[in-house]
Design goal:
The protein is mostly helical and 32 residues long. The chain has one domain. Helix content is 94%, strand content 0%. The protein has one helix and no strands. The chain is rod-shaped.
Length: 32
């Protein structure tokens, strides 16, 4: 049971990470 809840937390974190990375990419493109 503990492992399942851990995986759920990771899945929730993942989307936020990708959003941040996408924003970073946009910022870098603007700088160029």
């Amino acid at each position: 049971m503990a492992e399942k809840s851990k995986q759920k937390k990771e899945v929730k974190k993942a989307p936020q990470k990708t959003l941040k990375e996408k924003r970073k990419a946009k910022e870098e493109k603007k700088k160029q």
